[in-house]
Amino acid sequence: MGVCLEINVKLAKIKTACAACDSTPQSSATVGIEASTVTTLHHAEQTALENCIVENPLENLSETAFRLYQGLRETGRRVGEARGYVKAVSQVHFFCPGEIVAKACLMATSTMYLKLKELEALELVEARAHYVTHNGRTRSDGTVWCVKMTPEQPGRVRVPYDALKASYRCLSADIENGRTAYAEIGESKDNSPESVDTQKILTWALPPSTTQNPVTGLTLRFDLEAVLDVPHVDKVDRSAAVDGAARALALGLGDMGSLMFYRWLLWQLLRLEQSGGAAPWFEVHEAARRARTDSLEGFARKPGALFVSRLKRSPWWDELARASGRVGTKPN
Question: Given a cut of 50, is residue 122 above it in pLDDT?
């Protein structure tokens, strides 16, 4: 409203100036090129200002498309909170099969893809298929969504390239254990919600761990502070804790491609601590927090790479890398 008011004030001033130009007596010498130039400039500025008035794109959405955007935007907000994004973040991306999104937003899958075109036309959402290899063949295991969190602001949304290359689920394990999107939809046919169910999307957008198995007796956190929880959990829960903290690092730093490295890093911290060394848990957490902050403030395009670079310059890095020994429980 403030921007529109300011534009209207400027338009009023220009109209007044134009009227003054038209009504002010001028000599024949100045009526020619000078008068026409001034009038042209006034009208050009008026047209430019009128073009700056941007309508709220949500007003042009159909009811169903609005419900879809509402579900995706709320999911983006929850994902942003889990990753530690600032509240003013302009866009958020996450992974979720389209069938799950359609079910959560109370519409058929075909309807969802039809309404998605409305959102994409207004530059509110971008959706890209995510591909993995299963049984030697390339298959899509879901969709990466990028949602504009500030619809009134101009600018397109883009699914980051790294998000398309990241690993989110193990499709082979999902198929083997009956945890596919189709299986989940089939199980919930008799339990249709009455309102948008973003929690259904979040179970895919923020999975508890790469094993996709529930952990008994341990609540996994999806913020960087999860790193500080690892040394305090029981030995039988260490594997799940390491996996959850590694995923928190990968999500927080936008670097899912380095998930294996983050797991290795946390296991090395445990090994160093077991061998009697001073494991730098706080230093690792602080380095991750700084890298994420640098990225949010525009000082780092790849916070994950910056985080690793700073770790390797630390005085304790060589000792950490050399640590050895078993610190978890033997697999059954």
Answer: yes
